[in-house]
Amino acid sequence: MNKPPRKRNKATSGASTDSTSAASSANEDISQQEDPGSATITVTAVEIPELTEQEQSDRLHLERKVERAIFEAGKALMELRDRRLYRSTHKTFEEYCRDRFGHNRRQSYLLMDAAVIFDNLEQKCDRSDHILPTNEWQVRPLTKLDPDIQPEAWEQAVESANGKVPSHRIVKDVVQRIMERTKVPNTYHLGEVCQILVKDNPELRGKAGCWGIVSAVNEFSCTVRMWDGEYTIGLQHLKSYNYLPSECEQMQVICDRINRVYSSGLEESVQKFLESLGKLNRAYLTALEEKLLKVLESEFRD
């Protein structure tokens, strides 16, 4: 009778034995190690060299170029306007800026106003920390203040920003607090004829000595209608002519007539004549002025 075949033992490879031994050895090593969370990591420190005097000078010079970039544009626009360097191709400065730079009238004048404010801050602010504006939006709220107060407001804004360049919102908040602190009672009334006092305010450039008629009375300012439109002007920049009610009514009629012709887009020489009427310091037109204005009105109607 045949015997059943004998079961053969499974062979164990040397590799398996070595692997098991290695795992056991690793486990023993891990069990003997300390908690990994308490392991010490060695980091090699890299020394950063201090700036040399020349490098510090170069940095300051380049920072100044960044700060002045946008304001140099405003100064260039002022020179183009004041010297009328656009006259060979365009009738007006506004048309030139629109065609050449893609600026509307407001953009161009905001840049020019910002350049004036920047120069004022550069001259009068404490330069020890070298903090100056870097764009037009930051200084726009300062146009509401007299030039002699602008440096004070800017330094307060820098302090509120912890020594950094302040944002538009911070500057605006500082300006509002200063305006509330220096609030002057508004005694003007609708229809009153006032003279514009520029007092180095860049926002009123070109309006020195002009007259306007109060069309709205605000808390800190008046809206004044002039020969080329309406402007909101601070009380410190207005002076009443103290005209009689009948004289105020007469000036209202003259203002309406000038404004209609001025807005019709006539040539620049004609606009200059109308602007001169906008600076009258009397409540009437002479016979010649009346005659010339009637001629322009008839031209406008045609």
Automatic annotation (TrEMBL):
<feature type="compositionally biased region" description="Basic residues">
    <location>
        <begin position="1"/>
        <end position="10"/>
    </location>
</feature>
<feature type="region of interest" description="Disordered">
    <location>
        <begin position="1"/>
        <end position="38"/>
    </location>
</feature>
<feature type="compositionally biased region" description="Polar residues">
    <location>
        <begin position="27"/>
        <end position="38"/>
    </location>
</feature>
<protein>
    <recommendedName>
        <fullName>Site-specific DNA-cytosine methylase</fullName>
    </recommendedName>
</protein>
<feature type="compositionally biased region" description="Low complexity">
    <location>
        <begin position="11"/>
        <end position="26"/>
    </location>
</feature>
